[in-house]
């Protein structure tokens, strides 16, 4: 057999080249997958030295066996098994393999921006399915931005009453009720995925000002913001009017007003209460409408509010150098593969504080970047076009000088939604590049095994095309991939 279609690449794979595969009944792929999942003999063995999420999967002509120390490990064994089901003659088989697999990083995330465009629960669930099948274990929901507030907060009813109805380009908005959010959390949990809710502050808060005008500063209209308004439309940001454009960095909460912290406390308190996962993301990116000293005061105080709620704060890398940041704050690096503008200094500050970073290099795994100059969907600012090869060909430990595996909590691939309206749009931008992010998050270091090469990756992804098609995933059939 050629490359087995396993993505992300497993840590250890032995292919029994001459051995008979395991035959499966079933007319369609789905039937064969169901038969494989029905047949696999699963063992939970806490002593198996497979860590919290690892697994062993053994296939020969006589059977399918999976072993793990946890339900999560067995879940990942089943994802691998699903990928291995292959057509053979007029039936289906699983090739004879022996796999021992453990993830490199504990945090393997995808982010979905439901603020620029709103996506209903069903779409979020579909994205959770896609992510979990690639062994991601965190869904970061970007729940607020200038264009809309997307989560019910009982103590602050004006947020959803006044600041949720609209989206970029005049499209309809929406918000998750607490029941919707719980449905998402439960659905994610059943696939071993945690939800990381983000309220982006103190910038990206124009929508807060629609609901509670007394908390918001007047928009700061720089030349860049006016130019973006001219280029992309959506009007000039104006207090009290919904914002439908895509400029960033003009809004700010009032930093020296206690009412702001009462508001943040109400919002974070309810969010902590409805979120079983350990993280609350406080944003902190692109606060160009906030004075830098005020920004530092704000993120320090708010990070401590999160810690006091018993959660671990996460913030975009800008917050790293703020004095008095809660020391457990995890930083999220969104700079380039080659850091610019001191963004690496900011990332290192989280590690110097004793915490870790999540890496999201924008010119590699911002899934909203255009694939090609003439692509209809996506943005361009992060050195687009971003090819599949660029999304793949980097290693987390080689990104930021002084930050190696022990300083890295994990890898996350953000999907910003300025240009995206449907699940098909999301699929098109995500697939196949999301598979590259999955491999950076789960698999051993780039180049450290035969499988962790671009040539191997292209071939394995190509072999997954039929599975993705049968699963209804509207992937981009990039000509960089030899699709089967
Ligand atoms: C940057 S980088 C943003 C978002 C935009 C995105 C579009 C960062 C943390 N923020 O506000 O949606 O670019 O690609």
UniProtKB/TrEMBL annotation:
CDD domains: GH20_SpHex_like. Residues 105-287, 296-444 form the Glycoside hydrolase family 20 catalytic domain. It is an enzyme of class 3 (hydrolase). InterPro entries: Beta_hexosaminidase_sua/sub, GH, Glyco_hydro_20_cat, Hex-like_dom2, HEX_bac_N. Residues 39-101 form the Beta-hexosaminidase bacterial type N-terminal domain. The keyword Hydrolase applies. Pfam families: Glyco_hydro_20, Glyco_hydro_20b. It catalyses: Hydrolysis of terminal non-reducing N-acetyl-D-hexosamine residues in N-acetyl-beta-D-hexosaminides. Keywords: Glycosidase, Hydrolase. It comes from the Bacteria. Its EC number is 3.2.1.52. Belongs to the glycosyl hydrolase 20 family. This is beta-N-acetylhexosaminidase. It comes from Microbacterium terricola. The lineage of its organism: Bacteria, Bacillati, Actinomycetota, Actinomycetes, Micrococcales.
């Amino acid at each position: 057999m050629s490359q087995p279609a396993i993505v992300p690449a497993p840590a250890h794979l032995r292919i029994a080249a001459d051995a008979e595969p395991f035959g499966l009944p079933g007319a369609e792929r789905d039937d064969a997958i169901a038969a494989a999942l029905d047949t696999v003999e699963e063992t939970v063995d806490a002593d198996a030295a497979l860590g919290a999420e690892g697994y062993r999967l053994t296939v020969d002509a006589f059977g399918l066996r999976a072993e793990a120390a946890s339900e999560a490990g067995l879940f990942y064994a089943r994802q691998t098994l699903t990928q291995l089901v292959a057509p053979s003659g007029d039936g289906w088989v699983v090739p004879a393999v022996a796999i021992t697999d453990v993830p490199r990083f504990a945090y393997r995330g995808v982010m979905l921006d439901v603020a620029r465009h709103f996506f209903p629960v069903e779409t979020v669930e579909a994205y959770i399915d896609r992510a979990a099948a690639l062994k991601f274990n965190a869904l970061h929901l970007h729940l607020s931005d200038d264009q809309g507030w997307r989560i019910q907060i009982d103590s602050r009813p004006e947020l959803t009453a006044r600041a949720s109805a609209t989206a970029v380009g005049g499209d309809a908005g929406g918000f998750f009720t607490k029941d919707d959010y719980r449905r998402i959390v439960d659905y994610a949990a059943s696939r071993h995925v945690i939800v990381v809710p983000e309220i982006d502050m103190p910038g990206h808060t124009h929508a807060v000002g629609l609901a509670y005008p007394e908390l918001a500063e007047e928009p700061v209209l720089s030349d860049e913001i006016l130019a973006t308004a001219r280029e992309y439309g959506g009007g000039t940001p104006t207090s009290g009017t919904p914002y439908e454009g895509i400029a960033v960095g003009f809004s700010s909460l009032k930093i020296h007003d206690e009412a702001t912290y009462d508001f943040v406390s109400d919002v974070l308190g309810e969010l902590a209460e409805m979120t079983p996962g350990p993280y609350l993301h406080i944003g902190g990116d692109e606060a160009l409408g906030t004075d830098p000293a005020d920004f530092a005061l704000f993120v320090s105080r708010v990070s401590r509010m999160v810690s006091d709620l018993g959660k671990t704060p996460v913030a975009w890398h800008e917050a790293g150098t703020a004095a008095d940041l809660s020391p457990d704050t995890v930083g999220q690096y969104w700079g380039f593969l080659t850091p610019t503008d001191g963004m690496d200094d900011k990332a290192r500050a989280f590690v110097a504080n004793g915490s870790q970073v999540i890496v999201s290099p924008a010119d590699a795994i911002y899934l909203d970047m255009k694939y090609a100059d003439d692509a209809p969907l996506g943005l361009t600012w992060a050195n687009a076009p971003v090819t599949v090869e660029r999304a793949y060909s980097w290693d987390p430990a080689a990104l930021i000088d002084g930050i190696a595996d022990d300083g890295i909590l994990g890898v996350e691939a953000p999907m910003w939604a300025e240009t995206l309206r449907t699940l098909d749009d999301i699929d098109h931008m995500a697939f196949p590049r999301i598979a590259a992010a999955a491999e950076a998050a789960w698999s051993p270091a780039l180049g450290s095994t035969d499988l962790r090469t671009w040539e191997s990756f292209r071939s394995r992804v190509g072999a997954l095309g039929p599975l993705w098609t049968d699963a209804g995933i509207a992937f981009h059939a990039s000509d960089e991939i030899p699709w089967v």
